[in-house]
Structure formats: C-alpha cells, structure tokens
User: Fold Bifunctional chorismate mutase/prephenate dehydratase from Halomonas pelophila.
Amino acid sequence: MTEPSVSLEALRQRIDTLDNDILRLISERAACAQEVAAIKAEHEPGGVFYRPEREAQVLRRVMELNRGPLDSEEMARLFREIMSACLALERPVKVAYLGPEGTFTQQASLKHFGESAISLPMAAIDEVFREVEAGAVNYGVVPVENSTEGVINHTLDSFMDSSLRICGEVVLRIHHHLLVGETTRRDKVSRIYSHPQSFAQCRKWLDAHFPHAERVPVSSNAEAARLVKTEWHSAAIAGDMAAKLYDLSKLAEKIEDRPDNSTRFLIIGNQDVPISGEDKTSLVVAMRNQPGALHDLLEPFHRHHIDMTRLETRPSRSGVWNYVFFIDFKGHREEPQVAAMLEEVKLRAAEVKVLGSYPVGVL
Assistant:
C-alpha cells in the first residue's frame, strides 16, 4: 500500500514542477508580446497588430509537432487562448458578430479569436458589416454557408456593396439540443422555438419525436432559449452556449438530422492578408449574359490547375449584369499561378472583385 502512494506523491511533485515551468514560459511569451507591441507602436504607428497568417502558421506548427496524449486540435485550442491573451496585452481585438449572445456565430468568434477578444453582438448581418466599415471594431464574424441548408444569401449580398475583405474562416460543427426550463416536462411540450434553419436541420427528428408540437420560428436560437426560460410547456432548439447562458436543461442532445452538420463563418476586416502557406481566395464575378459565359469563366481555373471549392450564383442587384458568381478556390492571389489565372478571368468577365485571400481554417 505504501509504494503506490509514494509513486503518486512523486507524480504530483512532478506536475507541480511542470506547472511552474509552464507558468514561467507563458509569462515569457507574454513579455515578448509586449515587446512586439512596443516595436510596432514605434515603427508602425496605426499598424496591424493581429496577423491572421502568422496565427494560422503557429497553430499549424503546434498541430504538426504535437505527439499526444492530447489530440492536436485540443492542443491548438490551448495555444489559441494563450495567443489571444498575449495579443490582448498588445492591443485588445474588437469583434462584432451576428447576435444575440449565445448564438453559434458567437461560438465561432470565440473559437477564432479566443476569450480575450472583445466581442460585441449585432442584430443583423449588415450591422456587422457597418461596424467594421466604420472602424468601430477590428473584425466581424458572419455565417456564410451550412453543410445541410446551403449558403446564407444575406451574407453574399452584403459583399456586393462592401469594400471589406475576407481575412479568415471558421468551420464550426453544429450540434442542436432540445432545451427546456426547470418547470417543463417532456410530455407537456406543446411549442418549440428556434431559428428557421435549425428547424430545417432537425426536421426528421422533430417529425419522429414531437410531430404535434407547434414550431415557432424566431430570429435566433439564443432568442428561442430566452423565451423558453420564462414559459411553461415550451422548448427551444439551440446549442451549448445558449443552454449555459439561460440555464436550460437538455431534454435531448444532438438532434440534428445529419451528424456532419457544420456551418462556415467568415472573418471580415479592412486588411489584405499575406500568404500563410495554406490559403483560400474568394471572388465575386459578373458575367455578360451570352452563350458560353460560364465555360469562359471556368476554363482558366482548369487550365491553371486551380482547385475550385465553391461556385454560387446570385442575381445581380445592379441590373447591369444578369447574374454574378461567388467563387472560392484554393490558393492565394499573390501566388504566380493564381495571379495569372485571375488576369485571364478579368479579361473575360464584365467585373471581377477579389473578396480576399486568407488562411484556410485551422480549427
């Protein structure tokens, strides 16, 4: 009985020593961040403190070097929070996101910028764009597509009239839960609140388990959770953040119809992002309404071996052109092969707007 307790005590002492080392090294890193801030303030007044490409490179390196037992994504998340706290010593990052509090967009914002960023909820996507354009915040976070329901057209349309650039992306696995307050019983649920897209993503589950409950669409899942907090015999479809924020219980977990359900969010800002080594570029292209227009647009991508990852069509809002294409592809606009392809597309299109080149989402 004595030997295991001696071994356990030795392990605890080893952990204490390691914790001391970790504390010292994090403090050294934070001090380096302060020195970086001082140098930037002296030589680059008004310069950019947050560097998306640098952050992506650091996180990728952490994941490549990790040997366990923590998995690579968990290790990268730990480093994300360290980097977020260190950046806050230089200059806190202000981020606007599609609110209210408790939404998946807030979760995406925290995933990308960490807990030390200053996050501000906005009521609509165009408000997020306006806050960034006005300089009230450094960045914005908006949803752009869901793996089940497709693109969020309001976000795409906002880019048509905006000078903002895409600085990054976040892909968030979406898990929906059926949430209730402390006074509601499962057999008494007669009304379910949620965002229309969440209803669509959980349609089959709801048909099987609550076919007779009234489905009431609201502006966000967080709003659904807020309503349920004060009502009897009602439930909400929302995520973990909303459940925690409004202190709701999970009547059922992960009720989405597809287990791979995920949403992609874009980070919007005013800066061009340098090459990170694993990048993506987004374009909006207006084409004249003539035979072979789509072929003419796509042919340079094929010839230059550019991997297109998404192609969406939207009606033109100006009325000048009949339709526009939103295109995502692998590569950075500064890479020679990509630059050559873009020059060819510009010769064939009525108008080309590069929305941004940015690091592929790491986490």
The longest strand covers residues 165-173. The mean pLDDT is 92.
